[in-house]
Design brief:
Layout: H1 6-34, H2 38-65, H3 75-89, H4 94-126, H5 129-163
Helix pairs in contact: 1-2, 1-3, 1-4, 2-5, 3-4, 4-5
């Protein structure tokens, strides 16, 4: 299909984000279960609830645009989740696994930050003020999650170093 307008690109980006979030809803419980750190497990569980709200915001945008959210698979998120699965299959010390899970989660957050920032900018350019506001809310949440992961990493990475 030929993409001829920013509107079409915007919808494509939204569908990609929707697919990414839906995949993440399945991955986060597995990541939480694999954690040794209670703080990290709670962080993944909290982010699961937050992700559910992000999916609802995207669905609201799709409703406002009169477009279905279905029809696209986010291969970027699929790859990031696959990397996380491979990590969880490793025979790793618990602290080392936790450090790796934080790394995997931050890769996901950075991917989402890029996608939401782009989609928000498209929404602004296209005059979709409510969509831009909703996308900014999610972008703010993703940034906050990344900062929380960094703070956890500063402790957990030290523990992983001691495990060697």
């Amino acid at each position: 299909m030929k993409m001829e307008s920013l509107q079409e690109l915007f919808i494509s980006e939204l569908k990609d984000l929707y697919s990414a979030e839906k995949q993440l809803l399945k991955a986060l419980p597995r990541m939480a279960k694999a954690c040794e750190s209670d703080e990290l497990r709670q962080g993944f569980e909290d982010h699961l609830a937050e992700t559910e709200g992000q999916v609802e915001r995207l669905e609201q945008i799709f409703d406002e645009l009169g477009v279905s959210p279905r029809g696209k698979k986010c291969v970027g998120m699929e790859g990031l989740i696959e990397e996380g699965k491979e990590l969880m299959e490793e025979d790793a010390e618990p602290e080392v696994l936790d450090a790796g899970l934080i790394s995997a989660a931050q890769k996901v957050e950075h991917y989402e930050i890029a996608g939401y920032g782009t989609a928000r900018t498209y929404a602004e350019l296209l005059g979709y003020d409510n969509a831009a506001k909703l996308l900014q809310e999610t972008l703010d949440e993703e940034g906050a999650t990344d900062k929380k992961l960094t703070a956890m990493a500063e402790k957990i990475n030290v523990e992983a170093r001691k495990a060697a």
